[in-house]
Amino acid sequence: MPEPDQPKFGAALNTDFYELTMAAGYFEAGKAQDRATFELFVRRLPWNRNFVLAAGLTQAVDYLLNLKFTGAEIAYLKTLPQFEHTRPEFFDMLAGLRFTGDLFAVREGTPLFAGEPFLTVRAPLIEAQLIETYLLATIGFQSTIATKAARVVRAALGHAVVEFGTRRAHSPEAGVLAARAAYIGGCAGTSNAETGFRYGIPVFGTAAHSWVMSFPSELAAFERLQQLLGESTIYLIDTYDTLEGARRAASLGRPLWGVRLDSGNLGELASAVRRILNEAGLEDSKIMATGDLNEYKIQELMAARAPIDVFGVGTELATSADAPSLGVVYKLVELEEAGGRRYPVKLSHDKQTLPGAKQIFRYADHDVLARSSECYSCGEGGAVCEALQRPVMIGGGLAESLPTVVEARRFASESLGRLPATCLSLFTGEPAWRVDISPELTTLYETVSKGAAV
Amino acid sequence: MPEPDQPKFGAALNTDFYELTMAAGYFEAGKAQDRATFELFVRRLPWNRNFVLAAGLTQAVDYLLNLKFTGAEIAYLKTLPQFEHTRPEFFDMLAGLRFTGDLFAVREGTPLFAGEPFLTVRAPLIEAQLIETYLLATIGFQSTIATKAARVVRAALGHAVVEFGTRRAHSPEAGVLAARAAYIGGCAGTSNAETGFRYGIPVFGTAAHSWVMSFPSELAAFERLQQLLGESTIYLIDTYDTLEGARRAASLGRPLWGVRLDSGNLGELASAVRRILNEAGLEDSKIMATGDLNEYKIQELMAARAPIDVFGVGTELATSADAPSLGVVYKLVELEEAGGRRYPVKLSHDKQTLPGAKQIFRYADHDVLARSSECYSCGEGGAVCEALQRPVMIGGGLAESLPTVVEARRFASESLGRLPATCLSLFTGEPAWRVDISPELTTLYETVSKGAAV
Fold it and tell me: Yes or no: is domain A17-144+323-450 CATH 3.40.50.10790?
């Protein structure tokens, strides 16, 4: 199934207003044709994360390919006091603005570490600046959720995890995108039907407590469900009494997929329910557990050998509750202007940036962050390495078609599988992965810092 | 400016898949015409919240008014294994499905407490069930952010707070809605231009670090900004050295609005910068502070008498970082079927619900949660009270036009102003507001619980 288009409503105007005032300023200052390079990265990982799993590139590219202001949007901007003195030529420029730049990025599903760029934009200054907010929100959010999903999936030790969080996501649209990102992070599917439709991701779900309550008895509700869904039937057994519910489900025999626990002590209940099902000869029926789960609780249930086959994880996954945002930033690292090329640096307290466009070279046990112009002989003679940033858009057009979510999910799984156990642990300690700065990049930083007095 | 339409893409299918399997089940079971009443509420407030500020009703109503499955969406559903045995008549029904029910709700900007319904839906069972996920995500998210905003605004003690969080929001669309909700919660405006366009909310912002860095010197960047923005100019002064930046800004004199600090010890820097500005005769220029702020840090800065005039709050506000979700639920409380009216109850461990449609009566110092059929003589003779739930949609149509965001913001401010200081404190302790259960509602619960054995 092809991926239907994303909504285009308000994409160009969905940006921080200062991107637009700066655009006017660059236009007036004659800097519109300066060519800027920006990088998107996190300065530090959240304190409870050992890596971040990159996701959201597909939506970022879709945005760039379709960037365009409507007449109504430009008419709105003209009404704002900040644009009172702005010349009409600026708005004419804005009406014709498209993204004409180059985009380099790591693949969706790539684990990254502090300071490593998710993507690099090289474009006329106005274009490169204007897209900052949307790119940060798109990449930052999906990477947050993909990372959380990877942790939850790892805790489940091979048992399937299904994303159930749309109802608690930060808006319905965030729910769709969270489900997409969770799939890339390793979930088996989602409860969100829209995500299934847009991206071809498997959807799951059978019935809620209200289903059970809408019938005169639990047994009547179960019978009706089985007639409807046959082998897909999952009985939600905790509406009244979980063990009674399990006995009623077992009394109906096959066909069924299994039962779902949604409250109480999941570990103890799972054991008791397993016995009830087995005594009824339903050894092959499954137990799904849901209810405010996260990677820590799942790890505890697995450690206690709870006989749970599938986990449904909602709120904590779709909001990444223990790390609900990533400190993604988008920083100017190079500027080609009439007078030549410059490497701007920011020296703010605790917010220094490394100048210059970069490439990430990944070795078996560490990364090297280097200047993009440096040539590391990946695989030739010495240690094998891989250059993680790849060309995605050239001159505003797609360089090659992007991987599907299925491919991104597989790539994430393979990439995570090559990380050491310290990286994949749910808990953080010493930095779990080494990122070296190349000598050339170090030299550039030192040179530029000394000359940066203004 | 009229509010442009919301995006309609994928709204009907943006739901948990089990809503659709249940719809098929209700259809097959001949329950499509049963009339159900569902309520949306939180069982418990987050541990660090004393109230929740209701928001998102406008988007919920927009969704209900436009609910409709497209042909492509129905074709997708037919491909799913769970619908393998479903009769075509179900999909024909789905193609014609619209929301035809009634909606009662509290106004946007109403402070609520545990157990009090944000909204009540009364509709044919299939319709009422299908909309669960979207309503939860819409009301839950915007109420989360409006609540956070109310806390941040209160901490600022009358100084303006501007929402700056789109870049860290859970997707660009969540950023737009977060800014809307933050405005209802009391923010003065937002940096999100799209939110300004859609809802007529004031937008703010001037220039970023990349603006400063794109010029050969900080002074050149400041001069250019002043030429562009005149009295709207805010100099971001921490790119290189904050106090040097303040002196450069001061050297340019008027016109200017003020300066912005974005890093370092904001309290100490604000005092030093204030002195620099005052010595230059710029007593009326303002200081804005930004940089990972939240209500706790702002309260501390205010307590220390930091001379900060305006706060910009981003990540922590747009994600409600210390309480990133609300435990909103949507529960079946009444069912009118061929055999009469029933009051379903759920007895799951720790997840009991009160049966029956409800009304909230608000008195000066407490609420009464009553059956919707009860008549409290608000204002007649005894203590004055207000019924918070009002009819919003009748038979699928709008009962009356909804308040604007400006009206919702004013209503929130007035409503919060009537709460006691214990409710408005940033810190939680004893329950800060009493919610009594009416005798009739108590009787119904007791009656139904006894008879609920199945």
Answer: no
